[in-house]
Amino acid sequence: SVEKDVNLNRIIDGMHQKFGKDNLTELEKARYLYIELGKIFRYKMDYLTLYKRKQEDIYFDMVDFDDIITNSWICVQMSDIYVEVLKRVGISASTQKDINGRSDYSMPHKYTVINLSDGRNIVADLIYDLPFIQLGMKTGHFGSNSENGQKDVLSEEEIKSADDKIGYTFQVSKEEYAYTETFLEMIKQELADPEKMREYV
């Protein structure tokens, strides 16, 4: 993976330049920042080592938010960075331990809980969405984990509406926006149609 620095203020400035400071809702801002970080982050493969000492070094590595010199992290730091960028735009969030993880495990999986001012609390688990975001596909870990009914779940429509607004989806027609998988399905259908194939050839 390509090493990149992660400049939080630059990401926020990019959002403000595109949409102004007040033209996105809290949820749309949270979604925009989730997608932008998801495009940059890479999973730190060194964590897969069998050496517990090395895993601990990586797991407990602190992030200097004003000088993030790598884009390779694991769940803990990805969540901490996301929490920091949310706080910088006035959104309350925290890194939390997976409630379904083993209670005696010293390095549990962690994710972000976003506290929206409308009273909803949603889970965002960026590490699992990296491959989907980098392919422009629907995500499955933003607002979908109810934590056994303790957290709020977002509808696909609400997420899609935010994605259309922030430019994550592609414009298919004057009225319609879609994710990458919609295009892949269209291409698949065309490849299965002998008439269309003849046109291409």
Quick structural gist:
With 201 residues, the protein is of the alpha+beta class. It contains 8 helices and 7 strands.
Mean pLDDT: 91
Q: Write down how many β-strands occur, each being a DSSP E stretch of 2 or more residues.
A: 7
Assembly state: single chain
List the uncertain runs: none
Shape: globular
The number of helical runs is 8
DSSP strand content: 5-15%
For the biggest β-sheet, the strand order reads: 3-4-5
H/E topology pattern: HHEHEHEEEHHEEHH
How far is it from the N-terminal to the C-terminal residue, by CA? 36 Å
Q: What's the story with the biggest beta sheet?
A: 3 strands, antiparallel
Helical amount: 40-55%
Classification by helices and strands: alpha+beta
Radius of gyration: 19 Å
Chain-wise SSE layout:
Blueprint: H1 8-19, H2 26-40, E1 42-43, H3 52-59, E2 72-73, H4 75-88, E3 92-97, E4 110-115, E5 121-124, H5 126-134, H6 156-166, E6 170-171, E7 177-178, H7 180-191, H8 194-200
Parallel strand pairs: 1-2
Antiparallel strand pairs: 3-4, 4-5, 6-7
